[in-house]
Amino acid sequence: MVKRVTGLGFAAVARVTDRYWVACAIDDSIQYGLAPGDKVDVATTICHEISQHKQPVIFGHASEHPVFATHPTPRLFGFESYISIPIIRANGEFFGTLCAVDRTPSAIETPEVLENLTLFSQLIAANLDMQDSLDLSQRELLDERETSRLRDQFIAVLGHDLRTPLSAIRMSADLIDSRVTERSTRKLVHAIQTSTQRMGLLIENVLDFARGRLGGGIPVRRTHVDDLQSELHRVIEEVRRSHPAASIQQSIDIPTAIDCDRVRVGQLLCNLLGNAVTHGDTHFPVTVRAAVEHNLLVISVTNQGQPIEPERLGLLFQPYTRSEKSGYGGGLGLGLYIAAEIVKGHGGSISVVSTAADGTCFKATLPLHGVPHLSDHDMAE
Q: What enzyme class is recorded for this protein (predicted)?
């Protein structure tokens, strides 16, 4: 475009430093002898002067020009017509020049030529600024990803290391519970057991979250399970012991065998039920239902109380999402996220509906016999 606008045979974008004129891009139809990457001593060029006064230089007939007829640069490089426009970055930094030359005279000293090449130089400067901004954003993104990766690794290591002392506390509490008879002492022991049980759940949630972030999702190992009902009953009783003030009603009817991860489905119910008894109105019971409907396992947990704001419903299954009313000790905000990941690992779906009339209901739907493997072609379609 520069050659077309000026009619000159050589055009270049150059980086101009204190020492060198460095060719960045060149279009040469007069075999001027320069290629991208070539360096020229900047003191021998007119661009050296442009870097100081930051003004365009343009002339069409050097040998007859009152200033450049005696200037050493046209004679050194053998050109008659010349135009060079400074490239100025948004921060005022001088980058280099957009220039064109030819060995023959040319009528280029017109406002149109100067205006067009000035616009071209501004476009180059804007592109350089945009590229720098993009590079900075990419570096910041990489730094943030690395920070996130290290944070997740730290969480995983911390959660793993907390298991050992917690197991010791649990075993000690169980041993004391088997030996004491005083009611007040047993009450304290039961408080310790309840707290360690809650701590264990928190640690497992943290570990699962870290595994999911570091390894592409929470692992789900599906097997043929005949006694899922007993696992769900066990979870409900465990939550009852941890929340003695809560009333839990249950309807568990799973008459068929299911291909699932028994432990993970129990964890799914534990997280949903724990969330319900924590945030529900204690004057009303929490209802747990599990049944097989249309070759699907459906698990739902419903509690009464203040409905969840519509704008928050879509955020509930994201990590670290907590109710503003939870306060200190309300959990890490990972339970529902992990529940959703467990459902996802089974190829199922999870949803929530919350109204003042019917309460808040979380429903997880899982296929009974797994999800068939999809080929890349099937996934593409």
A: transferase
Beta-sheet pairing, 258-260 with 223-225: antiparallel
pTM of the model: 0.49
Cα 37 to Cα 30: distance, rounded to the nearest angstrom:
18
What does the alpha-carbon distance between residue 258 and residue 368 come to, in Å, rounded to a whole number?
5
**Domain locations along the chain:** 2-109, 143-215, 223-377
For helices 183-215 and 111-179, the axis angle rounded to 10 degrees is 150
Q: Which CATH superfamily is domain 223-377 in?
A: Histidine kinase-like ATPase, C-terminal domain (3.30.565.10)
Would you call 209 exposed, middle or buried from its count of C-beta atoms within 10 A (0-12, 13-18, 19+)?
Answer: buried
Q: Write down the CATH number for the domain with range 2-109.
A: 3.30.450.40
From the CB of residue 177, how many other CB atoms can be counted at a distance below 10 Å?
14
Closest CA to 285 of 309, 251, 235, 308: 251
pLDDT by residue for the chain (381 residues), tens only, comes to 999 999 999 999 999 999 999 999 999 999 888 999 999 999 999 998 999 999 999 999 999 999 999 999 999 999 999 999 999 999 999 999 999 999 999 999 999 999 999 999 999 999 999 998 888 888 888 888 777 776 666 666 666 677 677 778 888 888 888 888 888 888 888 878 777 877 777 777 777 776 666 555 677 888 999 989 999 998 999 888 878 888 999 999 998 889 999 988 998 999 899 889 988 888 899 999 999 998 899 999 999 988 988 888 888 888 765 554 444 344 446 788 889 989 998 999 999 999 999 999 999 999 988 654 333 333 333
Closest CA to 118 of 91, 97, 132, 101: 97
Q: Which amino acid is at 9?
A: G
How distant, in Å, are the alpha carbons of 85, 91, 347, 368 from that of 372? 65, 58, 10, 12
